[in-house]
Amino acid sequence: MKLFSAQELKEWDAFTVQHEPVASIELMERAATACMPYLLPHAIAARHIYILCGPGNNGGDGLAIARLLSVANVQTKVITVYNDSAPSADCKTNLVRLQGNKLVNIIELKQQQQLPDFNRSDLVIDCLFGYGLNKPVSGIYQEVIEQVNASTAKVISIDMPSGLPADVLQPEAIKDYTVVQAQQTLTFQSLKHSLIFAETGTYAGNVQVIPIGMHHGFEGHAHAHMEFITSELVQSIIKPRQTFAHKGTQGHVMLAGGSYGKMGASLLMAKGALYSGCGLLHVYVPKVGYTILQTALPEAMVMTDEELYEIRHFPNLQGCTAAAIGPGMGMHAETIKMLGAYLPSIQIPVVLDADALNCCANLLQEHHFSFRFPKQCILTPHPKEFDRLAGFSSNSFERQQKAHAFAQTHGVVVVLKGAYTRVCLPDGRIFVNTSGNAAMATGGSGDVLTGVVSSLLAQGYSVNNAAIAGVFIHGLAGDLAAKGKFAISASEIASTISHTMHSLL
Question: What is the model's pTM?
Answer without folding.
Answer: 0.94
